[in-house]
Amino acid sequence: MDEDVLTTLKILIIGESGVGKSSLLLRFTDDTFDPELAATIGVDFKVKTISVDGNKAKLAIWDTAGQERFRTLTPSYYRGAQGVILVYDVTRRDTFVKLDNWLNELETYCTRNDIVNMLVGNKIDKENREVDRKEGLKFARKHSMLFIEASAKTCDGVQCAFEELVEKIIQTPGLWESENQNKGVKLSHREEGHGGACGACYSEPSRRRIKGFD
Amino acid sequence: MATWDRSSRKLPQVAEPAMEGEPQVPMGRELSEANRFAYAALCGISLSQLFPEPEQSAFCTEFMTGLVKWLELPEAVLPTMSAFASGLGGEGADVFAQILLKDPILKDDPLVITQDLLSFSLKDGRYDARARVLICHMTSLLQVPLGELDLLEETFLESLKEIKEEESEMAEASRKKKENRRKWKRYLLIGLATVGGGTVIGVTGGLAAPLVAAGAATIIGSAGAAALGSVAGIAVMTSLFGAAGAGLTGYKMKKRVGAIEEFTFLPLTEGKQLHITIVITGWLASGKYRTFGAPWAALARSREQYCLAWEARYLMELGNALETILSGLASMAAQEALKYTMLSGIVAALTWPASLLTVANVIDNPWGVCLHRSAEVGKHLAHILLSRQQGQRPVTLIGFSLGARVIYFCLQEMAQEKDCQGIVEDAVLLGAPVEGDAKHWEPFRKVVSGRIINGYCRGDWLLSFVYRTSSVQLHVAGLQPVLLQDRRVENVDLSSVVSGHLDYAKQMDVILKAVGIHTKPGWEEKGLLLASSSLPQEEPHEAAAASSSDKTSDQDGQIQDPAPRDTPKVATSSDSGQAQVPTGLDQSEGASLPAVAASPAERPQICSHGGSPNPLGCPNCASKTQESCPGLD
C-alpha cells in the first residue's frame, strides 16, 4: 500500500500546555479520547495515512510537549515540517494570547517560509468559552493561517483539520514535490475551489497571503 | 575544553572505593527530563544513521528500549524513540546535540553522557561493538575528544577490578559467608583470567546466577555503585573478558583444523582493555621483521593487543622469497619502471620482465601455499571470534598483505553466521591480495560495526606480480579502492607511503597513521632512529625519553589536562629495558592508574635476546618485561 502513497508529510502540533494537542492527535489517529491523558514527554510521534482528493498521503505527526521544561526541545522538530497545527484552548484566554509567542518561534526555527499553518481552537464542547470564534478567525486571517474550531472529546472538526491541512500542503507543490520527484506519481488535474466540504475552515487561497488584515 | 578535572571523578573510586550506603546514581539520570529525552533521541538518531540496515533494527530497538528504561524516561516516549531509531526526525540531531551541550551538568563535565552510555552498554556484561561505535559517535557529537573515551574505559576497568577485590575482602570479614567465599574464589579465579584453556565463554547467565545466590548483589551494590550502578561487577568482568581468562592467549588449537599447522595469539601488550585489537602479519622477513609482532611496534589502538601467529614456516619462506626478488633479481630500475607502469593504470597491459618471470617459481609456491592457508586461518579466526573466546567485547582486526587476506576470509566466514553482528568494531585491510569487487565486500557491512578500511597502493607491482594469475581479470583490493557505498568503507590510497609491497611491514607506523589508527605518539622520529640501526638498542635513554614526554603528549593532540602528564614521565624514567618505547604510553595510558599504566611490554618481540630464531617473539622478554616496572607504586 506504500506504493500508492503520494508523499510523506511532516506535520507538527504546537501550542501551550494542556490545550489538548495530544488529545487531538489521539482522536485523529486512534479515534479515542482520554480525559486523563498524561502530559507529553519531549515529543510524541504517530504515523497515519489519509486520503485527500484520491491522493494518499502518509502523515508523520510530531506532537510536541507544551510544558515549559520541554520547550528547549521543540526547535528540533520544526526542521523539515510541511505543516504546523497551532492549538489553543477556547476556554483559556491565556493560551490564545500566547499564540504570538508560538508564531514567533515558528518563524525563528522553520526552515521554509511556504509552510502551511493551521490554527485550531480546541475544546469547543465546553461551556465556559473565553475566546470567541470570531477572534480566532481574525487571528488566523491576520497571520494567513487556516482556521478551524474543534473538540477532541466530541470528535468535532478533528478529521477536518488534518484533511484541510494536507489538502493545502498538496496544493502547494513546492512544499513536498522536491523530495518525491522520483516517485513518478504526479497529480493530474487539480480542481479549483474546494474547501467547501468543511464549513468551519477558512481556506480561501486568494486571501491566505493577505498581510496586515485589520 | 581543558578545564575539567578528571582526577576528581576518578579519585572517589580509587581512594575510597567503598562508599557504602551511598550508591551513586549513574550520571545520566541527573540530567533534566528534557535533556534526558534529548540524549535518548540523539542516540536514536545516531543509531539510525550508523546502522540503517534492516538486519540491525532489532539491535537498535532493543538498545533504545533499554536506554529509555535506564534513563527512567516514561514508557510513553518509546514509540517516539523507535521512530528516531528507524530514521525519522533525523533533521533534529544537531539541535539535540546543541541542547545537550548547553546543559549545565554537561558543561561542567562533558563526559557525563559518554560515561553514562558506557555504563549502560556494559551493564549486561557485554560490550557490543555497535554500542562502542555509537558511543564514539555520540562522544564526537558532544565535542569530546575520543581519547577521553579510552580513558573512561580504563577507569571503568579499574573500578571493575576494585569491585572484585572489594568483594573478596568483604567475604573474608564475614564468617557466615565463608562457604560462599570458596565459591566466590572459584569464580573470581575464573574471572581473574588466570585459567587458560578454550572454555567457551559468553557466560553472563552461568556466572551471574551463583553470585546472586550467594547474596553478592548487596555487596556489589554498594561498592560497585560508583561506577556501574547496580551492575554485578564480576559477572560483567568475566563476561567481558571471557572466563577463559587470558582468553585469546589461552586459546589452544585443540586439534589441527583443516590444513592449519600453527595458530596462536601472542600478546603485544600487557594491559587489559574493554576492547581489543588483533593484528595479523602478512609475512615474516629476515632481520628486524622476523617476528610476527615486529611490524606492529607502533600500534596503540588499544591497551590489549594481540598478534596472530600463524603458519610461521610458510610465511618465512614467503618473506625470504619476496626479499630475494627485491634484492637480487629485479634491478632497481626495473622496479621503478614497474611501479610507474602500475601507477599509470595500465595493469592489464603490464608485461612482466623476463628476469622476474624466471624467478617466479621462487615465489609462486610459497605464495600459493600461503594464499590457501590464509583463507583457512581466516575461517578459523572467524569461529574463534564467533565463540567469543575474546570475551564479550569489540575486536578490531588489522592486517597487511596475507594478514589482510586472513581478515577478509574471517569476515566472509562470519557474515554467513547469524550472530555475527556486534563483534568486530573496525577492520583494517592493508595491501590485501583479495577480490576488490564491491559485491564481495557487501556482506562485511553486517559484520563490521565501525570502519572497514582498505589501504591500497596503486604502484604495488610486487603484489600485482605475485597475484598476477588472478589480478588480470579481478580487481585486487590491495591495488585499488573498493567501490562500496557505505559509511563504513574507507579507501586510503597509500601510494605515497608504500613504494613496494614490502613497505607494508617496514612503514607500518606511517601507514597506521595514514589510515587513522592510533599509534604511539612520538613514534615517527624514533621509528626512523630504530630503522637506521640494525636492531633496537636496549640501553635506556632516560634523559631523552623523559624530556620528550612533554613533546609527545603535545603531539597527541588531546591535551586536556596537564595533571596526568606527570605519570608518563615517571613511567619513562623508571622503565628500563625499553629504550625508545616508553613514551609510547600515550596520553590516555599515561593518565590511567599506575597499576596498569605500566603496561610495559609493548614490544616483547624486540628484545636483547636477539638472535633467537623463534619467530614467535622472545620468551625471555615476555617474562622480563612483566617485572620491569618498578618504582611505579
TrEMBL record, chain A:
Pfam families cross-referenced by the UniProt entry: Ras
Keyword S-adenosyl-L-methionine on entry: no
Subcellular location field: Golgi apparatus, cis-Golgi network membrane; Lipid droplet
PROSITE patterns membership: RAB (PS51419), RAS (PS51421), RHO (PS51420), SIGMA54_INTERACT_1 (PS00675)
Catalyzed reaction equations: GTP + H2O = GDP + phosphate + H(+)
Key words of the record: GTP-binding, Hydrolase, Lipid droplet, Lipoprotein, Nucleotide-binding, Prenylation, Protein transport, Transport
Gene3D superfamilies according to UniProt: P-loop containing nucleotide triphosphate hydrolases
Biological process according to GO: endoplasmic reticulum tubular network organization; lipid droplet organization; protein transport
SMART domains recorded: ARF, RAB, RAN, RAS, RHO
Annotated GO CC locations: cis-Golgi network membrane; endoplasmic reticulum membrane; endoplasmic reticulum tubular network; lipid droplet
Chief place of localization: Golgi
NCBIfam families recorded: small_GTP
Function of the protein: The small GTPases Rab are key regulators of intracellular membrane trafficking, from the formation of transport vesicles to their fusion with membranes. Rabs cycle between an inactive GDP-bound form and an active GTP-bound form that is able to recruit to membranes different sets of downstream effectors directly responsible for vesicle formation, movement, tethering and fusion. RAB18 is required for the localization of ZFYVE1 to lipid droplets and for its function in mediating the formation of endoplasmic reticulum-lipid droplets (ER-LD) contacts.
The protein's name in its UniProt record: Ras-related protein Rab-18
Species assigned in the record: Rhinolophus ferrumequinum (Greater horseshoe bat)
Gene it is expressed from: RAB18
UniProtKB/TrEMBL annotation, chain B:
Coiled coil feature spans: 149-183
Pfam families from the UniProt entry: DUF726 (PF05277)
A Gene Ontology cellular-component term: membrane
Subcellular location: Membrane
Membrane topology, as annotated: Multi-pass membrane protein
Residue numbers spanned by region Disordered: 1-24, 536-633
UniProt similarity note: Belongs to the TMCO4 family.
Protein name: Transmembrane and coiled-coil domains 4
Gene name tied to this protein: TMCO4
